[in-house]
């Protein structure tokens, strides 16, 4: 049933349908309304036997979920920005303990300077945690991704945390028509969580052992193998979702106009705007297509190699920067297609801290690349030069 | 030993393993053990050499109370509460310093957990650095006695009062020197619904610089000098105190341990011993430790 709801609600309602046992969070803008919605559902007895906890910090929230997940519960949290960074020690740990925690990150910039607005610097900092990362384009995709996230994370071939990344404000605060799932549909798609191992006095097991050099590496290799298996598990789940919901969001990447000479690459909500830009440029005779990267971890190496093998130019719009190098999506993409494509890479960091990225701004950049006015390499776009005490 | 097996790597005379075995036995092994990073974790949880006969989890250094809260919440949600008690075994640094945020959160929410602080008064696992529960005058590697410094300056953080201030149902201190006291308090604690805190004074033979054979004697001297009062609070009210017949001067406790040895030769040693004696006297006054002669 289609309803006009905010991004917050599209997530909260979907979480409820997944029947989590323990929900724990700490408020942070622009995430708060997700957990406020869940708290209201809890207060009204709509979450079944679930326990809802407001923690003393994001660090505490993530830690509570480590305990709950290890005890066999299906768990949920939402956070972003400083909260995600504060959680980071716990999330690295949870991945190592192979706990299928599902969290939503409402992407927000990092301090300093303080910014509550959107970019991807927060989730990029968790790149190497062993957490699956999927970026959604709109609130329907966010809504649809929650049951899929549980199904993928809890698959015994995977068992890793899953982070659904949705752009703060641009999606969270937006009212959009969302086809809300039914309980029957989610129940038939997502079976109850049956942990492979959990804390029980009936069969005592130890979680989080310490591992000397003769055995540590084996655990980390196992994480990489789980991430590799997750590629296939994700494709199966994405496909199943398309069949049961009638909405096909694509695989690890979603490509528009795959026969193009120039490709624009982006993640998250800006993909919607870029699709429009690309369509208009094609009407002007520019051979340009769009690659929306959906899964950043595991990274869609094969898909990018295949799509870009004959491409001439690739324009990457990063919402983040790895200071001292360039945008992380661009870094990853280059490494993935090295030896498989001769395309020139044009890497741009845009929209940091919520800096506006209007349609004509994006169109101008792509046109400049297409018409040879840009050089391959890295540049910020959309900023202006300024002087401060520390240059 | 059924619940905490042989094969752990603790030193002979280590207080931690005595305390852990006593607690697990008192609860007949009906325990979910949560253990932050520290000496206990290192000596008991190496992959392939797990010494725990109960379900056990180690996550991080500073989050044991939150992990325990999560287990408790999960058991509640999954209707498995009758499976066992959620018990944290944490060191003093994990409790009073780096983990006090998550501890305060768990107390504030009054999760049905038993939090045991194994207080050996410094970061002993990493070679004896000072923690918030290191007593004044102790020479640690980060508060070493030197030409001008007489060891740690400042008080031992009063975690008992901090726990009581959270309004949790049960708070107590105990000592490895008195295992029957530990047993009694643990059995009593788990009868309360909500958060329970027991701080157990636990000798560290390497950090304290004592022979394992006198660990129990030293632990008892801490109590007999009034430096480690054994007390019990129920719903914020002091309900029991272990009385001391003839309270001994603190020197008798200090002189047996390498960590305090400098106090008997250092220029400021006398002054520090007086400060330490004053803490013992304050404890005696505050808790009424001295058995009044009739």
Percent strand of chain A? 15-25%
Main sheet: strands, sense, barrel of chain A: 7 strands, mixed
CATH overall fold name of the largest domain in chain A = Rossmann fold
The assigned structural class of chain A equals alpha/beta
Total helices of chain A: the number is 12
Output the helix-strand order of chain A.
Answer: EHEHEHEHEHEHEEHEHEEHEEHEHEHE
Q: In which order are the strands of the major sheet of chain A placed?
A: 3-2-4-5-7-6-13
Give the neighbour order of strands across the main sheet of chain B. Answer: 2-1-3-4-6-5-7-8
Total strands of chain B: the figure is 8
Enumerate the spans of chain A where pLDDT stays under 50 for 5 or more consecutive residues.
Answer: none
Radius of gyration of chain A: 21 Å
Query: Could you estimate the helical fraction of the residues of chain B in percent?
Result: 25-40%
Shape designation of chain B: globular
Level-1 CATH class name of the largest domain in chain A = Alpha Beta
User: What is the CATH architecture term of chain B?
Assistant: 3-Layer(aba) Sandwich
Percent of residues in helices of chain A comes to 25-40%
Largest interface: A-B, 43 and 46 residues
Mean pLDDT of chain B: 97
How many domains comprise the coordinates of chain A? 2
Separation, N- and C-terminal Cα atoms of chain B = 45 Å
Pfam families (chain B): TPP_enzyme_C (PF02775)
Region (Disordered) (chain B): 127-147
GO molecular function, one term (chain B): oxidoreductase activity
Biased composition (Polar residues) (chain B): 127-144
